[in-house]
Amino acid sequence: MYPILYEDIIELVDNTFISIEKFEQRFGSKEEHQFSYNYFIQHQNTTPGWRSIFDEWKAQGVLD
Questions:
Q1: Residue 33 — left, alpha, or beta (φ > 0 → left; ψ -120 to 50 → alpha)?
Q2: Tens-place pLDDT, residues 5-30
Q3: Residue 33 within a domain
Q4: Tell me, what's the pLDDT at 15?
Q5: Using CB atoms within 10 A of its CB, is residue 40 exposed (0-12), middle (13-18) or buried (19+)?
Q6: How many structural domains does the chain have?
């Protein structure tokens, strides 16, 4: 499950936000990624900044 702040906004880290629509445009739908840490860290659009976010999400239990 996305760390939702509002109805369609994901809270990334430190008061940084992205819409679910834009996140899924970048990384695929939840049916594709299934909240898999390995999917995200191996995705072609993952930068060092995104890797840090995914590492934090993994530690928080957001990602499998």
A1: alpha
A2: 677 888 887 788 999 999 999 999 99
A3: yes
A4: 82
A5: buried
A6: 1
